[in-house]
Amino acid sequence: MGMLLEDLDALAGTISVKHCSDDDSTTRPLLLVTAAVDKIVLKKPISVDIDLKMVGSVIWVGRSSIEIQLDVIQSPKEESDVSHSVALAANFIFVARDSKTGKAAAVNRLSPETEREKFLFEEAEARSKLRKKKRVDRRKLENGEVNQLEALLAEGRIFCDMPALADRDSILLRDTRLENALICQPQQRNIHGRIFGGFLMHRAFELAFSTAYVFAGLVPCFLEVDQVDFLRPVDVGDFLRLTSCVLYTELENPDQPLINVEVVAHVTRPEIRSSDVKPCKMHCYRTNKLICS
């Protein structure tokens, strides 16, 4: 699955380059980077012994942003309906920058023609507006949310201050934490010389999978990626540290409980004494059994 994330990002990048091309060799090429992944949903199990087909197209453009919808198709020989063969669906958002100034650059417009194209365009437009609204409202909390946070913090303080009185069916977030680190190598760079976003998602996915595995005590089953945000670029030679923790659990269905795992990547440059938070990734898993909640 981690390798599939790399392939999806590579295909989305190829599609974005094709969309922005004007077939003029004298035009300065745009710098196209993965800004976010809106959602990746596994619709049915993917078999390792049947070929996969990945298809994608631009479904929406803003002034400098592009949304690309990708489908991974796996159809058994006896199944002819392509719509029922979509195993995984994903939406990638790319942004265009001027390769010299680094500022936002305008991209080719998109003209939907069919009813389906118009429907997809309107859906993507609504998601874009929602993302902008979330950025504005991210730090605003309603009264109900504040009360819920205070209740969660109160339960956590009992664990820290009075562990003998704490709920035995609960666990602190920090106790679910896993971490790994690596030096970014030249073979992991994209055509712009920066570390390939698909590689970062691959490594984050494997860490999230491991975190869910250790937490639940059984092999987890991947369900979906909720959101991926690339906040800053990662360069060759950067010291990349990925940390993860279980963020949320749900036990409405004891046979198939849900676990949300968040992975945050920090890029550290010891020689200049700096550390930046880089892409933030959210993964959701389904397991057959949950030991802690």
What does this structure look like?
- The protein has 293 residues and is of the alpha+beta class.
- It folds into 2 domains: 1-137, Roll (Thiol Ester Dehydrase, Chain A); 172-286, Hotdog Thioesterase (Thiol Ester Dehydrase, Chain A).
- The protein has helices at 2-20, 115-137, 143-161, 197-216; strands at 30-42, 53-61, 65-73, 86-98, 178-183, 221-229, 239-250, 258-269, 274-286.
- A hairpin with a 7-residue loop joins strand 7 and strand 8.
- Helix 1 (2-20) runs antiparallel to helix 4 (197-216).
- It is globular.
- Residues 279-283 and 288-293 have low confidence and may be disordered.
- Residues 1-100, 174-293 form the HotDog ACOT-type domain.
- This is HotDog ACOT-type domain-containing protein.
- Keywords: Hydrolase, Repeat, Transit peptide.
- InterPro entries: HOTDOG_ACOT, HotDog_dom_sf.
In short:
The chain is of the alpha+beta class. 28% of the residues lie in helices and 33% in strands.
Features:
Thiol Ester Dehydrase, Chain A; 9-stranded antiparallel sheet; 4 helices; 9 strands
What is the name of the CATH superfamily of the largest domain?
A: Hotdog Thioesterase
Q: Give the CATH class of the largest domain.
A: Alpha Beta
Considering DSSP H and I runs of 4 or more, what fraction of the residues is helical?
A: 25-40%
Specify Rg, calculated over alpha carbons.
21 Å
Assembly form of the protein: single chain
- Across the major sheet, the strand order is 2-3-4-1-6-9-8-7-5
Return the string of H and E elements: HEEEEHHEHEEEE
Going by CATH, the architecture of the largest domain would be Roll
In round numbers, the mean pLDDT is 82
What characteristic shape results from the CA principal axes? globular
Discrete helix count:
4
Percentage of β-strand residues: 25-35%
Sheet/helix structural class: alpha+beta
User: Could you give a short account of the major beta sheet?
Assistant: 9 strands, antiparallel
Determine the CATH topology of the largest domain. Thiol Ester Dehydrase, Chain A
Distance between the termini: 26 Å
Query: Would you count the extended β strands for me?
Result: 9
Low-confidence stretches: 279-283, 288-293
